[in-house]
Amino acid sequence: MPERVVITGASRGLGLELARRHAARGDSVLATCRDPGSAKALAALAKRDGSLRVERLDHASPATITAAAQAARTWLGIVDLLWTNAGIYPGSPGTSVEEGPIGTLRLEDGLEVFATNAVGAILVAQAFLPLLRASRRPRILALSSGYGSLALNRGTPYWYGASKAALNMLHRSLAADPDLGEVSVVVVSPGWTKTDMGGRQAPTPVAECVDGLLHLADRVGPAESGSFLDWRGAVVPW
Length: 238
Known about the structure:
The protein is α/β, with parallel strands linked by helices.
């Protein structure tokens, strides 16, 4: 049965492939990104498929989060599935944020990474909750990282790892919130994937990872809410 889906960070990589695949499945998709004017591949996808609409949403801009939620209310009415995918990896293509070894860390870089990867992600969830609560099977899947695991930490990038650990904690809190309603909240590690962020040396092709992510989204529910899983569905240590 077709679903109503919202995806953040849909201009490239996993977000773009999720948008493409959901549209191909017949879902209605609100695909968001920081700068729709420069998201050429996403714009071309929307031009070909009337079931996909593009809106601006910047995790670090509360006004754009509110506006995108209103656009979803107008166009979709109900949201069945929210993919919180947008994120910053310092030093990767498309970002000026830097991160080096201890002794070189800068406040402004850390704040920007946390604003996008953690604080903005939970604000997105908050903004779309009223539309999710109206669904018969509402799910939030927040894209995290193995770098967000304290148990697996053997020396991770400072800002990125800590921001993903914060994202994990915020969504674990959301999953336990008595005001959440029937929304299932799952944190997912997509692993090292061949995106602009992951680089060509990454072992997992985007299409293979998205296959797993979609399978996971199709099966998770209340029993998995509050879990930290990888893209194959295996539990990741917190």
